[in-house]
Write a structure and sequence with these properties.
Length: about 240
């Protein structure tokens, strides 16, 4: 008998925060994925088992709300196991905050929420990074976060924005945390604006403007995302 097909585990924290372009990259590479929807009561495994890698998506939770969302503790344990066994990790938004916490860094509220379309600037040495080499030095990314993190000890900072010094990092060779969203598709943006409309109203942002700006910014962002995720998939 041959080896079973490769698959990754995907931690999902909200119905509307799906893997988007990440799932498409996995599908093109013939790699399966299994969702762990902890917010819906799915049990988080203690170990990675036979999963080739771990994808950790965003969500409205905060890593310091583990008393309110106890499954975050279980997720941290799983992330630690993935790190221990050198399994590739791709962590987005809340996922990047969980990864940073697992690596011993502090996560805390930023001075203001960074939501919508804002430019990200890559560090100079990303010209040799396995995922980001050849990517434009600066591009407009999609953001939806209030919390930020310190750079974990031993990690390499990959990107920043005007508001947030740590927008992305790499730990070792194959664990990546991205605070901004590269995985977005048009339906995802529409759904997030609809789902989190109260949050937008609370911070004085216009959801319609965010949706309309997607016509300008999303095509270029998706090209970058497709390249980055296709490269990450090769590490599995």
């Amino acid at each position: 008998m041959g080896n079973p097909p490769k698959h990754v585990s995907i931690l999902q924290h909200h119905e509307c925060e799906t893997p988007g372009l990440i799932a498409e990259a996995l599908q093109r590479a013939g790699i399966g994925h299994r969702y762990i929807r902890s917010f819906q009561g799915d049990s988080v495994p203690h170990t990675m088992g036979d999963a080739a890698g771990l994808v950790i998506m965003g969500g409205p939770q905060s890593v310091y709300e583990q008393a309110k969302f106890p499954y975050l503790r279980d997720e941290m344990r799983l992330i630690e196991d993935a790190l221990k066994h050198n399994k590739p990790i791709l962590a987005v938004c809340l996922g990047s905050q969980l990864l940073a916490t697992a690596l011993g860094a502090n996560v805390f509220p930023g001075r203001k929420k960074e939501i919508g379309w804002h430019r990200v600037t890559l560090a100079d040495f990303t010209v040799s990074d396995p995922l980001f080499n050849g990517t434009p030095k600066s591009f407009t990314a999609f953001h939806w976060h209030g919390d930020i993190f310190d750079l974990p000890h031993g990690a390499t900072s990959l990107a920043s924005s005007a508001l947030t010094a740590r927008q992305a990092f790499r730990y070792a060779k194959n664990a990546y945390g991205l605070l901004f969203h590269l995985e977005m598709t048009p339906p995802q943006i529409l759904k997030m604006v609809e789902t989190f409309s109260n949050e937008l109203q609370a911070v004085g942002l216009n959801g319609t403007a965010i949706k309309l700006s997607a016509h300008t910014h999303l095509p270029a962002l998706q090209k970058i995302g497709q390249q980055v995720f296709a490269r990450w998939v090769t590490s599995l």
